[in-house]
Structures are given as structure tokens and as C-alpha cells.
Specification:
single chain; 291 residues; alpha/beta; Rossmann fold; 2 domains; 4-stranded antiparallel β-sheet; 14 strands; 32% strand
Amino acid sequence: MEAIKTNKLSKYYGKSVGIKDVSLTINKGEVFGFIGPNGSGKSTAIRTLLGLLIPTSGSATILGHDIAKEGKEIRKKIGYLPSEVHYYDEMSSRELLLYSSRFYGPENPAEIERLAEMFELDLDKKITDLSFGNKKKCAIVQCLIHEPELLILDEPTAGLDPLMQNRFFELLEAENKKGTTIFFSSHILSEIQRLCDRAAIIRKGEITAVENIQDLLEKQMKKVRLVFKEKPIDLKLPPGSQHEKWHDNKLNFEYVGMVKPLLQFLNQLDLIDAVLEEPDLESIFMNYYER
């Protein structure tokens, strides 16, 4: 059974597109990334999945339950971390977390204490006195205390310092080893690269690609840096070359294609040095956006 499955899921705001024909299959036990800049439709897709927005068309299931008909069953099994959190200001973190845990069964104060200690969260401070980062820590604890089958995380590291981010990633890796499925939405590509097995790229509300992260990093695109003895005149780069940049006798470009023609091209040149590098995820991501 898939953890999440969508079929041409769309959400319009009047004539404006939130998401359009989003079709995804996320397997149980997977860590799945959702990549896109702010405003690309990531949060709209998540809120539609969770029933916070009513889809204009299409359908979706979460853990086998229809999002339009079985929202109550879905909410028992998931943990949701929104990009921004808003709580009852006069409650303390402890009161809020105990109150929240009762929706899922008996209170679990020991687990609340354990997670709060991990994230250095003062449980006795009122919500109104917490910084944005500490409110985010409280939200992290809240989405985990009932041991959900699926975590849906929307820009989850916003407000966390680097130390807390690293602890959060370690916690997610441990949860995934226990079998928890993770849907991780972010515009920070290094986070996706660290955590995810596969990722979908969303642009203007539409999915432009769904790729295995390792396959993305091993794509045939290469970064090429060449140093010539003398700058050649009218050098014609092989098909698949792009983003050509010269600096004196040094040339940088990106190459998309089989490596053999590139090596044959390089063998004909009078070079001092040549470097071929694997692209980082950001370069690949920008390449998708520019197509």
C-alpha cells in the first residue's frame, strides 16, 4: 500500500492555479522530497492533502484512506509540521503538548520530556514568550509524540539553528529506520539531498519531474572546467553544452549527454588542465527550472 497517492489533484483560487494535475505515488517507508521555491505550490499541495483545502478536481489517498471522505482516520495516523505555527498563547508548551497527545490516546509525558530535552525546549514557558524557533521546536515534539506512521513536514527547519537542524535530521533518520514514512517539503536543496530517497520538483503548481536523488546526482550533466595554453578562436562546443563562460584562457560550461563524445572533444584540444565535476543538486534543480 502506498503512503500517499494522488491522481491529477488540482486546487484553483478562482482562476489562479494553486496546484494543477499533481500525480504522485509515495511508498511506505520512503523519505520523499518535495522541492520548489516559495510560491511554487508546495504548501497548497500539502494543505489539500490534509483536507485543509478542498480540491478543485482530482483525488488522493493517504495510507489507503480517501482524503475527501476519511479525514478523521487519516489524522490519527499522521504527524503534520506546518511551515508556521500558531498556538494558544497562554498555555505552556507542556500544557499544549499534553492536551495535544490526548487526541491520540493516553498522555505520554515521558516522551514529551525526552523530545523536549533533545531540542532544549523549556516546557514551562508560556507559548507567548517563545521565540519563533522555540515554537517550531514545540511543533516538532507535537507532530512526533503519538508515533505517527507518516510525517508530513512543510519547510520544517525554518527558525531552527544549525545545531537543532542537525538533531532534527538525526531524529528523522531514526524514525525512518523504524518504518515511518516522511514527506519532506523544502526549498533548501541540501536538506533534500541529505534525507530523501526520491524527490518531486514542482514549478508553478505543476510537477516537472520525479527523480531518484542518487540518479539526479548521477545525471549525465557534468560541470567542465578547461584551461587552454591559448584561448582558441571560434571553438565549437559539443552538442549538449550550455552556460558557456570564458575568463581569459579559462572556460567553464555544463554538459548534458553521454560522456564519450565529451571525452573525444577534449582529446582534440590543446589544454593545460581539465576538470570534470558531478553537479550538485542545486545545479540540477536550476537546469529543470530553465527548461
